[in-house]
Design a protein that fits this description.
The structure is a single chain. With about 220 residues, this protein is of the alpha+beta class. Among the domains are: about 80 residues, Ubiquitin-like (UB roll) (Roll), CATH 3.10.20; about 45 residues, no CATH class. The chain is built from 5 helices and 7 strands. It binds iron/sulfur cluster (SF4) (2 copies) and FE2/S2 (inorganic) cluster. The site of one iron/sulfur cluster has 13 residues, from helix 4.
């Protein structure tokens, strides 16, 4: 067993536990895209980053591939983490603006502009489909081909391979295919359908109830 500290909470976890798993066991929310508890860790999307304190210094690490080790001190939601995560989300949305999962993530993290060129690739190379096919279905239906900017998921020679069991798992697990954003009004890569980009007025006596305010404001009892 190893003892680590996450957001000031000391916890004891079995060796081999990742920081993401340990944090989630404590009820601490860390977003993830390429992680699935039933599949091997991959560390591709980086949205699960956390800050690891090392004395006066700290590093930013992907929590889904970071093993918990004795004395590790982790902060999951520092300003540095939030800033880095927002840039990563911007990058991911620029690759795949038609993913509702990504649009929701952008909305949750207050991303209201995309500073990268919109590519609309329909894949963030998270590798979930490839790992699902190989590890859960023991099939080799799909895999990564190409390098750098031409890297993509494909079947061998572009035809449905004999190994494919038509389980549909690769689509079901994909954060882009599984929940496609149907909005036709993408503005600079961001969909305004679910995200409220308007400034929300608060009551004179705001109690942070998280309700939106109508024209006359809330009644304050
Ligand atoms: S549908 Fe075919 S390619 Fe997709 S996960 Fe299932 S076996 Fe693999
Ligand atoms: S197709 Fe979907 S699941 Fe597969 S790598 Fe791309 S984003 Fe991930
Ligand atoms: S969930 Fe950790 S890198 Fe993707």
């Amino acid at each position: 067993m190893v003892t680590i500290s996450i957001d000031g909470i000391r916890t004891v976890v079995p060796e081999g536990t990742t920081v993401l798993e340990a944090a989630r066991d404590l009820g601490i929310a860390i977003p993830s895209l390429c992680h699935n508890p039933g599949l091997s860790p991959y560390g591709a999307c980086r949205v699960c980053i956390v800050e690891v304190k090392k004395g006066e210094r700290s590093t930013i690490e992907a929590s889904c591939t970071l093993p918990a080790s004795d004395g590790l001190v982790v902060i999951t939601n520092s300003e540095r983490v939030r800033k880095n995560r927002k840039v990563l989300i911007e990058l991911l949305v620029s690759s795949c603006p038609t993913s509702k999962t990504l649009q929701d993530l952008a909305a949750n993290y207050g991303v209201n502009r995309i500073r990268f060129a919109i590519k609309d690739k329909n894949c963030i190379l998270c590798g979930l489909c490839v790992r699902y096919c190989k590890e859960q279905m023991q099939s080799g239906g799909i895999g990564f081909v190409g390098r750098g900017t031409s890297r993509k998921v494909a079947t061998a020679f572009g035809v449905t391979p004999q190994e494919c069991r038509n389980c549909g798992g690769c689509e079901w697990i994909c954060p882009v295919c599984e929940r496609a954003c149907t909005a036709a009004n993408l503005t600079n890569g961001l969909c305004g359908g679910c995200q409220n980009l308007m400034h929300v007025e608060t009551c004179e006596l705001c109690v942070h109830c998280s309700e939106s305010v109508n024209a006359r404001g809330h009644r304050v009892y």
